[in-house]
Amino acid sequence: MKKATFWQKARCLASSVLLAVLTIPILFITSVKEAEAVPSFARKYDMSCNVCHTRQPRLNPYGQRFMENGYQLPGTADGGRKEKHLLGGETNGATLDDLSNLMAVRLRADIQKPSFEDNTVTETADDVDIVFPNVINIFIAGTVTDNISFFGEMEYATREGHAPALAFERAFMAFDNLGGPQVANVKVGVFDPSAMYSFPTHRQQMNPIPPEAHTDKFPPEINRIPLLPLAFSSKMFGLTRGPSFTEAIGATGGVDTYEPEEQTDGLSILPFEPMFYNAPYQTGISVHGRPFGNSFLYQVGLAQNQTAEDEPKTTFDTYVMVRYDMLGKFSNFQVSGFYYTADKAARAALRPPPPTPFGGAELVFSQEATDWTRMGIAARWQHKSWDIYGTYIADEIDKPVFGNAVLDMSVWETDGSGISIEADYLLTEKWLLGVRYDMMKPGGLSQLPPALQAGDPEINQNASFLGLLGKYYPRPNIGLYARYHHNLESSVKLPTAGFGGDEHPATNLTSMFTVGVDMAF
Amino acid sequence: MKKYTRFINSLLAAIVLSMVTGLSAVAQAAEAKAKAKAKPTELPIKVSPYKKRPAESAQSIAEGRVIYENACIYCHGVEAKGEGPVAFYLSRDTAPRPRDLTSGIYKFRSTASGELPMDEDIFRTITRGVTGYMPGFEGMAPADRWKLVYYVKSLVPDFKEVTDPEVIKMVGSAIPSSAVSIRRGYDVYQQFKCWECHGGGGRGDGKKAPALKDDWDFPLPPRDLTRLSSFKNGSEPADLYRTVMAGFDGGAMPSYADFFEGSEKDAWHLVNYIRSLSE
User: Fold this and answer.
1) Could you tell me if B9 lies within 8 Å of chain A, comparing CB atoms?
2) Has the ipTM of the complex gone over 0.90?
3) Is B72 within 8 Å of A75 when comparing Cβ atoms?
4) In degrees to the nearest 10, what's the CA dihedral of A130, A131, A133, A138?
């Protein structure tokens, strides 16, 4: 990887600073009505962010209930509030909800300084990476009438490696209180099923830092693993989304084989990639409610997926979640568990190093796509200034069969598990401290067949990170933060096992230091 | 070419962002304009616009409790002492915390200082909420709000004994705002030393402001009178009159009813002055 010159770095920094200088005043001049009136729901109800958030973006129990109730105040069906604001004055006004009561913007920007054991495998090496803004989320959300609500979240990511375009990360409608108050609430569209789990992943105090990776290769080229709750990661090495991402050119001994140059993006499943019950862009339908009172919450759902078979079919993963809530003096305790199953969700693959025993064919898929099951338990305890939450998630796949004496000597582990635990402490009204531990004990491909390796260590290496966070809120809707992640496995020196470079991706990233801003208005 | 990609992406993002925030600002300006044009709603001190209410009975109180456990428990707590799990995050170090509904101390009243509130006062607070801190439950069915009122009352035994609290009398009505009225209101503001807490310009930065605390010893900054929309007890003339006369029990704002006795017109002038600070 060619490193940027001093002048290139300087130009990049100057352009980012210039944009920051131009954009920050625009934000403050045009967006902030008053300190306690911020994104659209807060504006609609004239409330502080902290009515629904411990500190944004994380929801407190009231915010969770507001979300559960279809963005209506808990205990009500106030979607039909007639308080419509007039746009354009009394005579020419349109009787629509005020735009600012429907629309909100969240902006994230940061400066990242990663450190690597081996810089040669990385794209950005250990340069300081500054982009302003980094991610912009535009929310359009509200209620149509009583018990019918909508939510759209478009994300615009400017960082290289992301599509520089607006894309709906979440877009759904909700039909609430069907069959009576709290009996059944139906969500249809694109949403994250884990939103009601005790460890919801898309409202983290430590925003996910995406990976630098290429999934059009197998094994995937992982320049930098992502920093996100590893419990939700796929955890499985050696899996793909199946042959539909490539063009079949034939079969050898019952083994489908493919030319590497015909592969397309998305073929490989990253072991660190969040999947199942936590996937943005996941289309489906779910039903949740509390028909037996406030203590128990249920959720059942279907998530659309595509099988990894030779002839891929659209299928629906199924999931169920139950949660128990208990309120006390300044405290809230909840525990939840879920079960998720996806049929024929992935396909194992091997790429023997050339010369291969398969006459030039390089990528070899297993005979059958594997079913994938995931189970998780999570708990959250919030008391006064403390907010502690964690989850343990276990995944299971089938052992792949290649129908070939050599490849079937490969070693696969069918189980993987992960833990993510975070503790946040509100030191003062404006200062929040956090610490998060993530650990992943992966499954999937562990050893290549003896004929194809030369004493390589296990491929599916553990990954674990410790993250520290300091966040300052000058206003409830603006969080300025510094965070540091340390790779607890980085001292382990491991060959790459086919991932490119000299160091295994799980151990290559030593640390990541980030400062940034997360604001919503 | 690649070196410009990030710059172009960032520029595009900034443009999109500016457009969105600009639209938002336009909408906010339109809303503010519409609000400014709207005629103030003159509510009498003793508000009784909700005549159809369910009977106060053991059953309606029990139903009110269920509503409380769905809608209010997260802030006001299991025991209604203001100790819900959200309370600490809402106001960690400063007032206001969610009210201890068992204390019998009510901030928003149309009754004399130290008295229990009218049913309508509680109903109004539930309906309107408290700007910034408590949402208005106008989307809740009026009958359910009344049941909630009855449940809240059931938490304070004194409500059974005091059936006829001393109500603040509304003398006269709102005086149309004028330069003369505002000038008189300014004089009243000076005379009663409102500036000691609210500051000379009404920004809540008076010399006594840093030391003010509520009855629970939490720092309680006085209201910035230049931000009409942030007034917790309402910002219409009748709301301000009620606030001045009744004060905020449990808070630092005393009742000025005695001071204005016989010169209630001056209270209306003061209301006009306060409202003029936001213009």
Assistant:
1) yes
2) no
3) yes
4) -120
